[in-house]
Amino acid sequence: MRRIRFWVPPLILIGCTILQTTLLRKLSILGATPDLSLILLVFFANTLGSMRAQVTGFLGGIVEDVLSLSPLGFHTLIKTITGYLFGITKGKIFIDPIIIPIVLVLVASFLKAVLGILFIGLFRITVIEGAFSVKLWVEIGMNSLLAPFIFAFMKLFKVFKRAERE
């Protein structure tokens, strides 16, 4: 049973990444779509800890790299670092229903943008859009608004209870 529980978060994140890169592209606002996999990764990191969040972020990121036009490893590195950093928060902060999920996802979305800009410059990737365009701010806003709902939904499942020890 424990092995099954280990693979549930990565499989959910992979499924969400596939959904996000295929169907949700059609529902964009000003060219931006919410990053549901990032929101879920922040939830999993805060609930399950940094080691499992790194694995989950790595697997979700590699799937996102394969399905997108970005260089292989771009999203993988961002999601792995995000999983680690937000996994450190496990057991250290109290997650209220609204404010903390918004703040965590806001910081994670901004971190994703900053790491993306850093890696674009580091690897000399050609980008058409500006770094801090309207699209980025719309995505950060959508992520922040969806965070409390996704956190509340995921807390309904017994698999992700905070009492679980690693």
- What is the annotated CATH architecture? Orthogonal Bundle
CATH class: Mainly Alpha
Q: Termini separation (Å)?
A: 13 Å
Please give the oligomerization state of what you see. single chain
CATH topology: Arp2/3 complex 21 kDa subunit ARPC3
Structural class: mainly alpha
- Continuous helix count: 6
Radius of gyration equals 15 Å
Overall, the morphology is globular
Point out poorly predicted stretches.
none
Q: What is the succession of H and E elements?
A: HHHHHH
The total of beta strands comes to 0
* Whole-number total of structural domains: 1
Summarize the structure.
This protein is mostly helical.
What distinguishing features does this structure have?
single chain, 166 residues, mainly alpha, Arp2/3 complex 21 kDa subunit ARPC3, 6 helices, 0% strand, globular
Structure report:
The chain is mainly α. The protein has helices spanning 2-22, 36-48, 50-67, 74-87, 99-123, 134-155. The chain starts with a helix and ends in an 11-residue tail after the last helix. The mean pLDDT is 87.
